[in-house]
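Before the break, one more example. Copy the sequence into your notebook; we will annotate it together after we see the structure.
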Amino acid sequence: MRVSSNWIDYELIDCSGSERLERWGDIILIRPDPQIIWNTKRENPLWRQAHARYPRSNSGGGQWQVFKKIPDSWSVKYHDLVFNVKPMGFKHTGIFPEQAVNWSLMQNLIKKSDRKVKVLNLFAYTGGATLACLKAGAAVTHVDASKGMVACAKENLASSGLADAPVRYSVDDCRKFVEREIRRGNKYDGIIMDPPSYGRGPGGEVWRLEDNIWDFVELTSRVLSDDPLFVIINSYTTGLAPSVLTYMMETLISKKYGGHTVSDELGLPATDSGLVLPCGAAGRWTSR
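Here is what the structure looks like once it is written out:
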């Protein structure tokens, strides 16, 4: 497991009874997490002093319960990256803090490269990976089907002092975008994708991870440059084991480019218990 343990402005304080107790800057939030099947005693008083909680309803949805006044949005930092946090629908805050280990990996590879690196970030959400790559000196194309998420990504860009960075945003269905890039002959040295388990594109296109991921990775591999640096695929679908990501990437990418693939769980350390909470998986192919 790869653990994101270098945060200062974010902390997983405790987890019990299908919920996380988290600190985002100075704001304490309680959010649902179905993997937390244990019911350990909630001894930390912050469980009873949280600013807001998102309880999950029986139908799977929910809404925020606000106990103390909180701003519409506030900033948290990860090293030199600045993110605007806000309570969103479906328990989201705009950041997946476990992804910080991937940000560091990409930054190291980009900084060590002796050329201008072009990165394609697909299903890019609010742009954590986009910011990391831009800070390291890459040019990034950021693609997401949600206009609102792309707007949030632009806010994060400005907050991180990257308003003049070489980034191109596209509100688009990721498959259709990649198909056009193939026709245009555009190539990328790094590709990141964070595909949802289920989703719909702007034109009603249906995406189901288990049904579509193999074909999509094969399609996307066609926009890799002749000497690519990395491909990172994230998965939050519990049925998709890290070994599946490894097999897929070795079959579709390593056979053509060589390199090395490692896939494992991502995790966040819980301060009170000392355990590491699993938070999805990531497959990482690197050229060396």
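The chain has a mean pLDDT of 94. Helices lie at 100-112, 128-135, 147-159, 174-184, 209-220, 242-257. Try to locate both features in your own notes.
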